[in-house]
Recover the amino acids of this structure.
């Protein structure tokens, strides 16, 4: 084993490999013996392809280029396609119209070209017994104002005829038909987000409507109908998203509460953390200590199914097996089929595995003390120690630390293998993926600890994480060099990155903001409908709390910013417009703070094109190399990013 400075270790986990392994798996569907899934491919410009796996194991791509099964509803999408008896319905990204593909045919439009380009969007698709598409429709107005966007539940008939079933609520999601023809859906009103308060409504066949669960202080997600006419859903009335069942005409009853969140926040449509098997048993996924478990609810209670995975999503039943997207510390996301009784796991769509597992750093879930926020005084992280079988750091030195701040901020770190993390750890960096307070997976109190405190509590937690990992309280193999800690994040994580460098100077040696928020007031004034009132809870009601927005916006406090910063931004980002990045870059230039800026034409909120993923990743590494003073492996041929000092 050779000794080289931390950060400079040669590694097979290059940006090219990261892109090659960067196909994102979306929704899964079971259609008779076929298993379908969505696959977003960076090598094809990030377009989403639908893949069908036949019972004999052969796979077939549906939708040749340029078709792209992706919806812009809520900007984050989800539920953009569905399949029944071999016929596929999908929303195409280019125009957001609804299309149908019959077996052996080409896509044909069901809905007309909207007067406003991409102004009518469809999501959360399912097929009714009558052959209609039941879905959410998002309609944009000529004004372009977020307040004028209308969200409704509609059906679209095979001839394109559209009928509005639910209108009036600010937001709707999860429309589903029960076995007896009853319609269920979720609805919520501004300024709530669906994880703050959402109602589950059922409209019986006779038109009578009942609010089954949810409302002020209670979030309901992922309602699904059972074959016996019961309605299952997750609600957080116990303090955690737990599984409930409502039988016809009855009251909700608690089915499973493991003392941790079983579901997550509804950022995208179409999530599924439970499935009913052919024999009526229910399979669920739930989180604990930073990782997921998969279990079947037997007569004696939940029985965990042993697998090598630590994350489960898109649960779908196929007989007495469950098909889902699963991943773990040594495996990226895969489509798998788990035999509930036999315990066997069949990989239907394997994750690319081009690297020896010896290069993979395994995450360790840690809990560390932080400040008091609503009685919550600790935070969590997944910590990855530097790992490379061929290299070690100099004796007596501790590794540099990359603090990763997830987006949302209502989201969570994931223990699934991602080459984008191993890109750093295999070079000699430690990585801490921080579940700061406000993250999901730890219950309602932990999630609500960020309410009114975004830009304060999250900063406390990333700073506390650095201090804890550099102290004797941390396990020896996880300790880091605090003088070489850097921070990176995208979207809301980019905001925390910018705010940490501005309001907690001296903690980090450098940072990287990927499409991060610099001006909270600008975000409140100019963002899309779904998030247009999000900051009312996280910061303060807008515009009454304008002073608080200014107080917590990095752009208004650049006099305190003297830490080198790299900024990466999509030119067509509607969630965080590029003006935000450019305001920050201008301030850095005026102050003469070392910085780098890459603007990517054609990219939106998050980078999907392979060349841009590579440029941002290698550019960030080059930036840290110049700031921290280590060399880049010459065999990778990384072009140094331009660091501007004036």
């Amino acid at each position: 084993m050779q000794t080289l400075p931390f950060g400079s270790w040669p590694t097979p986990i290059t940006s090219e490999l990261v892109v090659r392994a960067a196909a994102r798996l979306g929704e899964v569907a079971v259609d008779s013996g076929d298993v379908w899934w969505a696959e977003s491919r960076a090598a094809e410009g990030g377009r989403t392809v639908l893949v069908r796996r036949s019972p004999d194991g052969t796979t077939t791509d549906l939708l040749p280029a340029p078709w792209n099964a992706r919806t812009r509803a809520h900007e984050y999408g989800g539920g953009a396609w569905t399949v029944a008896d071999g016929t596929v319905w999908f929303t195409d990204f280019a125009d957001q119209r609804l299309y149908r593909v019959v077996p052996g045919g080409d896509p044909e439009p069901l809905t007309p070209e909207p007067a406003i380009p991409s102004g009518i969007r469809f999501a959360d698709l399912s097929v009714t017994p009558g052959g209609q598409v039941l879905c959410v429709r998002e309609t944009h107005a000529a004004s372009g104002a977020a307040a004028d966007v209308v969200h409704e539940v509609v059906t679209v008939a095979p001839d394109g005829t559209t009928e509005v079933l639910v209108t009036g609520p600010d937001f709707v999601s999860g429309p589903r038909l029960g076995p007896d023809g009853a319609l269920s859906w979720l609805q919520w009103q501004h300024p709530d987000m669906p994880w703050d308060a959402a109602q589950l409504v059922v409209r019986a066949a006779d038109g009578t409507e009942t609010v089954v669960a949810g409302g002020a202080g209670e979030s309901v997600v992922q309602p699904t109908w059972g074959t016996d006419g019961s309605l299952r859903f997750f609600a957080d009335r116990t303090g955690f998203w737990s599984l409930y069942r409502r039988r016809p005409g009855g009251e909700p009853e608690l089915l499973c509460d493991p003392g941790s969140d079983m579901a997550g926040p509804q950022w995208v449509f179409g999530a599924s953390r439970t499935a009913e098997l052919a024999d009526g048993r229910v399979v669920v996924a739930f989180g604990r200590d930073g990782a997921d478990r998969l279990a079947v609810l037997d007569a004696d209670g939940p029985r965990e199914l042993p697998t090598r995975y630590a994350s489960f999503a898109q649960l779908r039943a196929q007989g007495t097996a469950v098909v889902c997207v699963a991943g773990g510390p040594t495996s990226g996301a895969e489509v798998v089929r788990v035999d509930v009784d036999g315990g066997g796991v069949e990989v239907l769509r394997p994750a690319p595995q081009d690297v020896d597992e010896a290069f993979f750093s395994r995450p360790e879930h840690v809990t560390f003390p932080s400040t008091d926020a609503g009685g919550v005084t600790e935070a969590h992280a997944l910590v990855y120690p530097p790992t490379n079988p061929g290299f070690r750091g100099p004796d007596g030195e501790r590794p540099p630390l990359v603090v990763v701040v997830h987006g949302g901020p209502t989201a969570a770190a994931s223990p699934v293998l991602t080459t984008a993390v191993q890109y750093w750890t295999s070079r000699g960096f430690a990585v801490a993926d921080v579940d700061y307070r406000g993250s999901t997976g730890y219950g309602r109190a932990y999630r609500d600890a960020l309410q009114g405190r975004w830009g304060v509590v999250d900063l406390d937690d990333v700073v506390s994480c650095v201090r804890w990992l550099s102290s004797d309280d941390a396990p020896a193999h996880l300790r880091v060099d605090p003088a070489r800690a850097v921070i990176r994040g995208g979207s809301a994580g980019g905001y925390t990155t910018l705010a940490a460098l501005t309001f907690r100077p001296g903690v980090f040696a450098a940072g990287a903001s990927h499409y991060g928020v610099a001006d909270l007031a600008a975000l409140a004034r100019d963002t899309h409908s779904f998030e247009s009132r999000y900051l009312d809870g996280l910061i303060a009601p807008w515009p009454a709390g304008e002073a608080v927005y200014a107080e917590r916006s990095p752009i208004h406090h650049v006099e305190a910013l003297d830490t080198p910063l790299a900024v990466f931004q999509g030119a067509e980002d509607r969630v965080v417009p590029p003006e935000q990045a450019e305001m920050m870059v201008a301030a850095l230039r005026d102050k003469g703070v070392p910085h780098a800026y890459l603007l990517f034409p054609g990219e939106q909120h998050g980078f999907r094109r392979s060349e841009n993923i590579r440029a941002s990743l290698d550019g960030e590494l080059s930036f840290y190399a110049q700031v921290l003073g280590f060399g880049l492996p010459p065999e990778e041929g990384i072009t140094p990013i331009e660091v501007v000092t004036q």
User: Anything to note?
Assistant: Residues 610-628 form the longest helix (19 residues). The radius of gyration is 24 Å.
